[in-house]
Amino acid sequence: MKLTVWTYEGPPHVGAMRVATAMKGLHYVLHAPQGDTYADLLFTMIERRNHRPPVTYTTFQARDLGADTGNLFKSACLEAYARHQPEAMIVGASCTAELIQDDPGGMSETLGLPVPVIPLELPSYQRKENFGADETFYRITRALAKPMARSDRVTANLLGPTGLGFRHRDDITEVTGLLMEMGIEVNVTAPYGASPSDIARMGHAHFNVLMYPETGEAAARWMEKELGQPYTKTVPIGVGATRAFVAEVAELAGVAPRLDDSRLRSPWYSASVDSTYLTGKRVFLFGDGTHVAACARLARDEMGFEVVGLGCYNREQARLLRGVARDFGVEALITDDYLEVERCIEELAPELILGTQMERHIGKRLGIPCAVISAPVHVQDFPARYSPQMGIEGANVIFDTWVHPLVMGLEEHLLTMFREDFEFHDEAGASHHGGKAKPRPETGGQPPVPPGGIEEEKKQATAIEIVWLPAAEKELRKIPFFVRGKARRNTELFAGERGVSEISVDTLYEAKAHYAR
Amino acid sequence: MTDRFAPPPARGCSATPVLKERGQHEVFCGLTGIIWLHRKMQDAFFLVVGSRTCAHLLQSAAGVMIFAEPRFATAILEETDLAGLADAQQELDRVVRELLERRPDIKQLFLVGSCPSEVIKLDLANAAERMSAEFAPHVRVLNYSGSGIETTFTQGEDACLAAMVPVLPRSEARELLLVGALPDVVEEQAVGLLEAMGIGPIRVLPAPNREAEYGLGPGTVYALTQPFLTDTHEALSRRGARHISAPFPFGEEGTTAWLWAIAQEFGVSPKTFHAVTEKPRARARKAVAQAAETLNGKSVFLFPDSQLEIPLARFLTRECGMTAIEVGAPFIHRAVMQADLDLLCEGPTIAEGQDVDKQLDRCRAASPDLTVCGLGLANPLEAEGLTTKWAIELVFTPVHFYEQAGDLAGLFSRPIRRRALLDHEGAV
Questions:
Q1: Is A274 a catalytic residue?
Q2: Which residues in chain B have their CB less than 8 angstroms from residue A478's CB?
Q3: Quick one: B145 and B215 in the same domain?
Q4: B235: which residues sit within 8 A by CB, 6+ positions away?
Q5: The domain boundary residue, chosen from B241, B265, B289
Q6: Is the separation of the CB atoms in A8 and A358 below 8 Å?
Q7: CA distance B151 to B154
Q8: Do B43 and B22 belong together in one domain?
Q9: Which of B77, B287, B413 is the closest to A1 by Cβ?
Q10: What is the ipTM of this complex?
Q11: Domains of chain A, start order
Q12: pLDDT tens, B225-252?
């Protein structure tokens, strides 16, 4: 039994959902109770998907347990096939169904469905989300992909992108472009956007590009062995890694290495004098092993940061990360215990965290800027704009993203210089982050107010002095802080317009009703 | 006292045959209630005994992780725990001891059962008893189930409150008990109005902390503030307390009827009642009227979610001028829902349970002006061209009583106003 507050990874069946939701023409029948449907909202809300994930939950209840959960599963399979007419189905159990041992795989075989039905064995009490995605993609590939003649032109498959992945959507575009520049066509991208029939023709490709080892390595290894397709080992995040990737691809494909770097701006941005203030910034990296390994090198070699610590939450990549950590002379933190990560960050006190959305919360609490480099992600990590991490544009995007949370060069100096200033002090925050500038907490003595300034003008507009009665003031404090200011302004405006000089609880609510929409 | 409103319909929905459905449900499990319960009971800790899925659900439902160490956590079962149950109990003891050592501020601990713990029949009642003996008097340990095989979404709060009823001491005092975890600002408004009528003493369940607890007995009368508190209702009845039946306090009409039912129980004169409620009623009316301009004449389809659907349909049809096409609820408990069903005019399909694909077919065919549904369905339906209101906001936002009536109506009118504002040419 392990006490857990926040988790980096969901259960393995959520990994299977990431594969199923990314694909087309595939349906997942998941033997699970009703509560497990919460996972749908990860895709519809966080990723803003405009379709429901292609998942049928059998929704068994306590009263079914002694009776017939098996039949429930069978009828759910038949109904899902009839309704959705998928090209192939995957079937499996969530953590609860695993305990009742209904054997979804065996049962589905007896149904005689006219499409391939692929059983998944995902041990919920041992493994986690990334394993679930990797294993599911592997099982689908193994069931559907067949050896076949290579395509006439040099082609490659892109392996690993899934639903809910960090910038997978845009990385696909970027990597496709990198290959195209070398005259290599993409045969199939999978799981993202692939149908079961696309999986079946993956054998045409000359080699595979393993974009995300976390979710595609098992399939890549199998394809290397069974279909004779070698796969790339370099993940093209950062300028150096992108150049290495191009060289590796050229070698695998037997073509000349070629990289169009006319759009590449990050090396110059990093070299330009405004970036001097980035020198030696102490950074801590945490996330999935692949992104952390790539970003650590980028942070040191392309940004000039000092890496003071790094780690990953997925044990599958522990070896990789320990190797990287040795190279940097630091200890790798391999844990999925959020509190341990927080303790480590607190101790190291870095100036910038490169992490997941979990570290963003840690950063917020500790007052350390944070940029996201890896899943798990939140809604703001699915931007509307094109925003890859890989390739040339990925390098540009990363430069901007990592610099953004920091206070800019000159501003940093001014904040230090005017440390004692009442509004221009080190707690005021970066000027480009929006939000209200915080005045220095009062330590006695009034800050000098410029005579006839903006404050003066405002006061003259409301001719009468408005007083908040204690009860109303107390009531106001119950309103959530983020709308409290608005409520205060509206109420005062409302009172001012009516010549009311004392604001009571009633006035507060009269105003609320007046402005209600 | 509800004079301003249309008379109750000659035929309400209480006799309408209910469409009972069985199939895939698209709702949260009862663990979700922990998200608001742990804020309400400031000395309580909720320990879910479950799987990684439970922890992931809580994290996803909470949306943001505001607290480094919130007052809830999951004891995740591992292979070794499943092998032998005696070990699981020992493991639980170990986890709880560590937790209580680290968090001496905890005065009550809830062991919350989950789907896996129910399936392996891990006896949490026994564990709670054993731990209560060990940690008394400093910490009280209770248990309830929030499992998805037994509870849907808001039923978790019901199970939690019901678990607290038996441990309250016996009392003969004549007291009013308000039942349901409401935001403080809302709760204080209700208490304020009732006290202004001379009603008291007033207690609330859940109490904000153990020190604020009270007794129960035949002198206790109670009013439910939430329609999902059916087990709590039964547990209170078993303790001899008496239920004041009323429509739920949503909107001006619901709030007035709810307050009046309590006022009558305490012999408050119509004059006093009128004097206390007149001003806030007028404000509620005014605020609702503004949102109702958008809602009037529009149709609404409610998917089963929080159990608030029937009272809300009553509010939307009677106070906002909407027409209900279908009102789905996870389950319908007559004793609690009767007053609202009586007021809801005959017409809509009343559905209990869910087969989500079939319900989506009905919804698409009806093409309502507004669909109230869960987060998993909202964006897909928006992409199909339907206007939606995500139901979880109705649980996470202060919506009860007079001063929030306008906000409640606003939650429904905003999506409609938004769709009218946006140029939809370019959307999906």
A1: yes
A2: 184-185, 188
A3: no
A4: B162, B165, B166
A5: B265
A6: yes
A7: 8
A8: no
A9: B77
A10: 0.93
A11: 12-127 (3.40.50.1980), 145-253 (3.40.50.1980), 266-406 (3.40.50.1980), 443-517 (1.10.8.550)
A12: 999 999 999 999 999 999 999 999 999 9
Query: Does B1 fall in a domain?
Result: no
Residue B222, strand partner residues: B177, B243
B289 belongs to a structural domain: yes
- And the tokens for B234? 């039964």
Could A342 and B68 be called an inter-chain contact, meaning their C-beta atoms sit closer than 8 Å?
Answer: yes
Residue-range definition of the domain harbouring residue B213: 175-265
B387 and B355 in a common domain: yes
State yes or no: cis peptide before A230, omega within 30 of 0.
Answer: no
- The label of the residue with tokens 């999925």 reads A336
> Are B253 and B394 within one domain?
no
Q: In terms of DSSP bridges, do strands B72-76 and B44-50 run parallel, antiparallel, or are they unpaired?
A: parallel
Q: Give CA–CA dist B160/B164, Å, rounded.
A: 7
Tens of pLDDT, residues A110-133: 999 999 999 999 999 999 999 999
Q: Based on the fold, state whether residues B22 and B40 are members of the same structural domain.
A: no
> B180 and B142 in one domain?
no
B225 and B340 co-located in one domain: no
Q: Do A37 and B377 count as a contact with CB atoms less than 8 A apart? A: no
Total domain count for chain B?
Answer: 3
| Pair B329, B403 in one domain | yes
CB contact under 8 A, A7 and B82: no
Q: To probe the interface with A, which of B34, B46, B65, B147 has the most A CB atoms within 10 Å?
A: B65
**Residue B157 belongs to a domain:** no
Give me the percent of chain B exceeding a pLDDT of 70.
96
Q: Are B336 and B224 in contact (CB under 8 A)?
A: yes
What are the tens digits of pLDDT across the range A55-98?
A: 999 999 988 887 789 999 999 999 999 999 999 999 999 999 99
With CB atoms and an 8 Å threshold, state whether B52 touches A361: no
d(CA A134, CA A160): 8
Q: Indicate the DSSP class of residue A202.
A: G
CA A446 to mean position of chain CA atoms:
45
Percent of chain B with pLDDT over 90: 83
Catalytic one among A260, A261, A274, A400? A274
**C-alpha triplet B401, A474, B202: angle, nearest 5°:** 50
Query: Would you say residue B417 lies in a domain?
Result: yes
Which CATH number fits the domain that encloses residue B295? 3.40.50.1980
DSSP result, A46-90: IS--SS--SEEE----HHHHSS-HHHHHHHHHHHHHHHH--SEEE
Alpha helices in B68-119 (DSSP H): 79-83, 85-102, 115-119
Which of B217, B245, B265 lies at the terminal end of a domain, its last residue?
B265
Chain A residue at shortest CA distance from B385: A50
Which strand ranges, in their side-by-side order, compose the sheet holding B72-76?
A: A2-4, B72-76, B44-50, B108-113, B140-145
Cα B318 to the center of its chain, rounded Å: 21
How far lies A470's CA from each of A114, A502, A503, A509, in Å? 73, 10, 9, 15
H helices present in B201-298, as ranges: 230-238, 251-265, 270-295
Task: Note down pLDDT in tens along chain A; length 517 residues.
Answer: 999 988 999 999 999 999 999 999 999 999 999 889 999 999 999 999 999 999 999 999 988 887 789 999 999 999 999 999 999 999 999 999 999 989 999 999 999 999 999 999 999 999 999 999 999 999 999 999 999 999 999 999 999 999 999 999 999 999 999 999 999 999 999 999 999 999 999 999 999 999 999 999 999 999 999 999 999 999 999 999 999 999 999 999 999 999 999 999 999 999 999 898 899 999 999 999 999 999 999 999 999 999 999 999 999 999 999 999 999 999 999 999 999 999 999 999 899 999 999 999 899 888 889 999 999 998 889 999 999 999 999 999 999 999 998 876 556 655 555 544 555 554 555 666 655 555 554 444 444 433 433 333 344 444 568 899 999 988 888 775 555 666 888 888 889 889 888 999 999 999 888 877 5
**3 state DSSP class of A448:** coil
